[in-house]
Amino acid sequence: MAYHRITTTINGATDVVDVPSNMTLLQMLRDKLALTGTKNGCAAGECGACTVLFNGEAVNSCMVLAVEADGADIVTVEGLAHDSQLDPLQELFVSEGAVQCGFCIPGMLISARALLDRRPNPADHDIRDALSGNLCRCTGYVRIIKAVKEAAKRGHAEPA
Amino acid sequence: MADNKQSANDGGRIPDVIGESVIRLDAREKAIGATQFADDFQFGPGLLYARILRSPHPHALIKKIDVSKAKALPGVKAIVTGDETPGFIGLYLQDRHIFCRDRARYVGDPVAGVAAVDEETAEKALELIEVEYEPLPGVFDPEFGVGPDAPLLHPDLGQYEVVNFVFPKPGTNISNHFKIRRGDADLAWAQCAAIVEKKYRVPHIQHVPIEPHVAVAKWDEGDNITLWGSSQSPFAQRNLIAKALGLSQSKIQVIAPVVGGGFGSKAGVSMEALAVVIAKAVKGRPVKLRLTREEEFFTTFVRQGLVAHFKMGCDKEGRLLAMENTYYWDAGAYTEYGVNMTRAGGYSGTGPYDVPNVKVDSICVYTNHPVGGPMRGFGMPELHSGLEQCVDDLAHHIGIDPVEFRQLNCIRGGDTVATGMTMHPIGLPECIDRVAKDIGWGKKSQPSAPNKRRGKGIAMMWKAPAMPPNAGSSAQITLSEDGTVTVALGGQEIGQGTFTVMAQMAAAALGVPYDWVKVATPVDTKYSPYEWQTVASRLTWSMGNAVVAAAKDARQQILDLAAEAWDEDPDNLDIVNGNVISYKTEESMPLKNMVIYGLPNPKGDGWIGKPVLGRGSFMPTYVTGLDAETGQGPRAVVHYTTGAQAVEVEVDMDTGRVEVLRAAAAFDMGKAINPEMVKAQMEGGLVQGISTALFEALKLKNGVVTNPSFVDYRIATTADVPHELFSEIVEVPQDDGPWGARGIGEHSMVPTIPAVANAIFDAVGIRMESPPYSSEKVYLAMMDAGIVK
Ligand code: FES
Ligand code: FES
Q1: How confident is the model at residue B7 (pLDDT cuts 50, 70, 90)?
Q2: Total structural domains in chain B?
Q3: What is the residue-wise DSSP string for B179-208?
């Protein structure tokens, strides 16, 4: 198996990692770097549990090869908070009761973050569209949608 | 039962934290990605990976297995087959081997297991294992399965070990037959002014937890086994695996971190024992078995299919006179767990109705389909699906509004249910009223486009915890030097919020702030107190009683100590907000230190007290057996949770697409310990119910699941959530529940399928034999009915 040395920035820190050519970004994060916040729900690009920000875009990390992350800027759920100050989305997921088993939540949060970065004032259907690739079996999405709405409102009231 | 009533030491006052929507204690950790699920544990470079070779045949004899080529593959560490697993395993009926031996009974039945240095190597090894099968004819329909032409799937049924409330019929494919005979249904039909008779089917579905099953097992040289896994049932797994392997339960330690969605699929033993048996072949090294999403769809548990025949009649005033319901459960290759779904479907087989003449037959049938197991609702969503449609039809026949018809006939506190048990006080009539009001019952609203039609539908439900009569719970309370509290328990957090509710109860019963309470995690059978299983929506009630008892025990120890120090009667003392106070002298002292070190002896030298350790347990003792021929007995179950849902749908006449526009749910959970979390259960259950009504079915073709992926098996997404939702809490207290509480988790998806079906009928006047009510099926049904051309 051929190995490649790649340089990526993960959650703000730049790292050099040796990865086999068939390793996915998800495997690299979880198995090589022990960043287990990003989840594996299907390994087939169908559930969204593995969503990370890849140069600012929400992508399914199980569908990206680790070597493709050479030179990229990656943000995982572990990188959403800054100096133990939670992202408003994280705060609102907690306070709105949007978290049940929590397995889908890292991917959900990342997709929501990508949405708010792109569109700070999303309509209801924007939120539903942006999260439609993130499956959740517990919550019925009701409070997740509400939390994203509230986070958008808050983002507007006090721009960071 | 007085001991369990929470009014005992607080004069009936309900503490503030009970009924308060505190923030879930696990939410923050989950939202920052720090929570460790089973797949997140690190085992270092010694970890081996397992893969399973599965039968490609729905029914076949296994003639020969040759593993020599696979064994020779570099990186392969061990291969095991059914030769290693002569013992039987199963919760209620021990009808399966961990790896199948002479016979495979479903596509996916584990035939061999490989441990290798990585998953890829293990996968390659599977291809090198040579198995010679002799395919046999199969059973793919439960009604065929009970007939004379069906091949016999379990010739040894008569020899299997079985609990005393399940009745297998050796020499047939029937592993349980539950009957109710009450009154005389045959005579009653003549007095009916209207009768509805109809057959409905419910397809197999899968639980689809977003976290797939994962288990890591290690077997050491001293034959001590450690099993880490995503599990709703660490204690049941310890017990069942020990029995199957002929070991003492004390040899097995199950460590179970929080579960990433269970819905029943991670109850009992589904795939965990495979990892244990493989680990035995590589002693000392941990072995990880992680199911792929494809395997998840058909190799663990699925929700069993149902073929149901209903007949029901009422008099001209609309009073139900008789019901005759026959349920054929398509229970799959092994029914070790399914037999009890059949039993639950039997004793609750009338739905929540007051009917004098009843005949119910609930029949558990072996088929060559995936293994039926517990799923949210435990048989109730399936049987209510057709039953609540027949009730609607009957109401229409006799000319009574469906809501009114249900008010007239629904079971009420004090009524005798079909098994002979007297119903405890319940709020079902109020639940019906509330959802009818929320949905605007009786008012037609305008469709959003000319090619669309709208309709409203209602359905109600009941469900009792289905479990052995003596399923127990236990809990322990310890305190730290600063007075903060740790609750040790054996029930599992599977997303439902039980750890939070237990912390609220402990805080309330002990007298400390909620945020002083932690739960000892992960659940570990070596250190955590016993809990039967996290199923049946039984924890709030059963484990809650245990936690409250433990907290009261600790509280009493603290009060006794303070009383001795202050020379007072403990009855004059209380613990409020983490301080012991005296109502008489108004003295006060913090819990800190005294709960560990005791207090200086007020009478001189030395100390009084000792570290506080509260213990509590609970087990229902009053459930009785039921007559095998009539299903009659004084108390079939511990209690029933009841409720109703109503929905408004819009049907697109051009495509057949059904959209649920708004929905209302009302359930009587006795007391909502955390109202927002209760509502979150109602929302999640409703959307899961909508998903099963509109999208979900395992497509089975000669025993093969042809849609085992998220692309081909669609579940609800954000796009499918109704834009308006009502979640209503009705509280008629449970006499032996903590502060009156009983369960709500599963109930929230029970009436959804028939509510949607009744709304579709209201909109376009069609009924379909089975869900899911996909666009295609609805469109074709409208064509058949001549509504569209
Ligand atoms: S794990 Fe990547 S989409 Fe499911
Ligand atoms: S919270 Fe469990 S899958 Fe979303």
Answers
A1: very low
A2: 3
A3: EEEES-HHHHGGG-SEEEEEEEEE--B---
A42 lines ligand 1 (CB under 6 A): yes
Backbone angles phi, psi at B394, to 5 degrees: -65, -45
What's the alpha-carbon Rg for chain A, to the nearest Å? Answer: 16
Our answer to whether residue B746 is catalytic in this structure is yes
B607 membership: H or E segment, kind and range: strand B607-608
Report the alpha-carbon distance of residue B90 to residue B358 in Å, rounded. Answer: 32
* Closest residue to B35, CB basis, from A102, A129, A141: A102
What is the average pLDDT score of chain B?
A: 97
Q: Quote the minimal CA–CA distance from B291 to chain A in Å.
A: 10
Per the structure, the complete domain to which residue B113 belongs is given by 44-136+226-243+255-285
Query: Domain check: are B338 and B481 in the same one?
Result: no
Cα–Cα dist A131/A141, whole Å: 9
User: Which homologous superfamily does the CATH classification assign to the domain defined by A88-153?
Assistant: [2Fe-2S]-binding domain (1.10.150.120)
Count of residues in chain A: 160
pLDDT in tens, B672-697: 999 999 999 999 999 999 999 999 99
ipTM for the predicted complex comes to 0.98
pLDDT value, residue B12: 65
d(CA B235, CA B255): 10
> Are B343 and B386 part of one and the same domain?
yes
* Residue A73, CB-side half-sphere exposure with 13 Å CA sphere: 4
Rounded mean pLDDT of B31-53? Answer: 97
CATH class of segment(s) A3-77: alpha beta
CA proximity to B498, closest of B527, B466, B540: B540
**Whether B451 and B485 share a structural domain:** no
Q: Whose CA is nearest to atom 4 of ligand 2?
A: A136
> What's the pLDDT at A155?
82
